Amino acid sequence: MKKLLLTLTAVAGLTLASNAQEFGFEKGNFIVEGSFGVSTLNNKNDDSKESSFQITPKAGYFVTDKIAVGASLGYGQDKNTTNPAAGKHEETESAFSAGVFGRYYFLDLGSRFKTYTEAGVGYVNSTIEETDVDKLKANGFGAGLGLGVNYFLTDKIAVNFALADIINYSTAKVDVDGAESVSSFNANVNVFNNFFSTAKFGLTFKF
């Protein structure tokens, strides 16, 4: 009986210690974060193929316990191939981006969930290659405001859920004579109906 009581006491103590552990960020912390995505589609009905991938690393520094600033990079590629009776057609678009961001953690959902809003601006350089068409290059920039959540697996590692881009603006111009810039603005307020329909997942490492 004594052994049973000692065992229950030890388990209770470990449980309380686990629940009491603090997860989160402090002034002076560094974070390294990134996500990677791949998708493919092979349609044998019309002999078409689609593939895409993207990688987006980030690094940030906490200037306060709740505010981080940092820089981000990104690279992605989309490739579409069709093989109609007239002949094979292939289109590839690749893009490189670089930017800066600011992040504010405003709500704790329990001890492990940390909710944030993030604003960022960035530069994008893209290249479009298409069968029987001259290669096109475009340059542009964008700005956006979004929401996200970190879920801490350990004190140093968290899963990052970039839930939604609430507001974003972008403009780009093809690098040819006489070309005009193309701009777009989106305010996706309706994403609050279903966060995870637009979620992007990655890992966050704290140092």
Give structural notes.
The chain is mainly beta and 207 residues long. It has a single domain (2-206), classed as Porin. The chain is 9% helix and 65% strand. The protein is built from 1 helix and 9 strands, in the order H-E-E-E-E-E-E-E-E-E. The chain starts with a helix and ends with a strand.
Task: Give the end-to-end Cα distance, rounded to a whole number of Å.
Answer: 45 Å
CATH class: Mainly Beta
Q: Total helix count?
A: 1
- Biggest pleated sheet: 8 strands, antiparallel, barrel
Order of helices and strands: HEEEEEEEEE
Q: Count of DSSP E strands?
A: 9
Q: Poorly predicted ranges (pLDDT <50, ≥5 residues)?
A: 1-19, 192-197
Widest sheet, order of strands: 1-2-3-4-5-6-7-9
Q: Note the quaternary state here.
A: single chain
Strand content: over 45%
Shape: elongated
Mean pLDDT: 80
From the coordinates shown, what is the CATH architecture?
Beta Barrel
- Number of domain units: 1
